[in-house]
Every structure is written in C-alpha cells, then in structure tokens.
Design a protein that fits this description.
alpha+beta
Length: 165
C-alpha cells in the first residue's frame, strides 16, 4: 500500500513539474509550417491570408501610430518553436502587433517566435540595398528568455540525457 501511495505521489509531482514548462503554446492547426519569408515575397498574392509560424532575431522594434512593428531576421524553428540561430537565416520579415508594446522589452538581438497572418509585402532598405519584406499581422508571439538568464531555474529534475550549450 505504501508503494502505491509513493507511485501516485511521484506521478502527480511529475505532472505539476511538467506544467511549469515555459515553452510557447502555439496551436499549429491551420498554420502553414513550410512557407518561408522568401517564399512569402515570391508568392505574395497566392499566400496572402495564410497563417504561418516564424521566429528569429529581432533587428528592430518601433512604435507606430496604432501598431508596434518588428523587423526580424528569420531562422528555422526547433521542435519547441525556438529560433535555431545555428542554422542559416531564412530572410527578413516585418511583423505588426496592434497597439503598444514596450520597445525596450523587445530589444535588438532578442529571440522571438510569432504566429500570424500574411498580409502583403513592403519595400525597405538594409543599408543602401533595397529589400522586399513580407508583412505579418501577429496573432500570438513569444519572446524568449536569454540563455543563461539568471531567472532560469538552477535546479533541474529529469530522467534521461540533456545536452545544453
């Protein structure tokens, strides 16, 4: 009987600890996971209104009249939807969030994952070079904590092998 109580306790403790995970909860049903920012520019008319899930490194953020705009250098996403900066970039995109977001929270160099709707494309410049950006209307976003951030827990419980850079 004691063993049964211990097993039940361990099961519930595991469930409680798993509920504390901080990965984003993007619902990927109805989202096109295969379209890249470069494809979105090349096929902008055909892909307008398509739901995508992209992520990358924030290049800049700015508060406009009614929206906050992000310029993001896209990277492939890992299985937990975090941008994988060890892989080659996929191009840049602009993302718009209705309303005001504090630009200092979304500073240059931070990692972000975004689900949203493809709107159109917009011409801009990277230095003196003209660049065509796909524009995304944000439905949901997740700003990733910096790796090694002191707010991450220092104590980990788990079974198996973990590799961490």
């Amino acid at each position: 009987m004691k063993n049964r109580c211990h097993i039940i306790f361990l099961f519930f403790a595991t469930v409680v600890l798993a509920a504390c995970a901080t990965t984003p909860k993007f619902d990927t049903s109805g989202i096109d996971l295969s379209t890249s920012p470069q494809q979105a520019v090349a096929e902008s008319k055909a892909l307008q209104g398509v739901q995508v899930l992209w992520g990358g490194v924030i290049i800049s953020s700015a508060n406009l009249k009614d929206t906050t705009q992000f310029e993001i250098l896209a990277y492939p996403l890992t299985s937990d939807q975090r941008p994988d900066t060890d892989k080659p970039p996929l191009g840049r995109f602009l993302a718009h969030q209705e309303g005001y977001l504090e630009a200092s929270d979304y500073a240059q160099g931070r990692l972000i994952s975004i689900s949203g709707t493809l709107q159109d494309k917009r011409s801009g410049h990277i230095g003196e070079t003209e660049y065509i950006y796909p524009v995304l209307k944000i439905n949901q976003l997740h700003l990733w904590k910096k790796r090694g951030d002191s707010s991450e827990p220092q104590f980990h419980i788990g079974i198996g092998v973990m590799f961490h850079n």
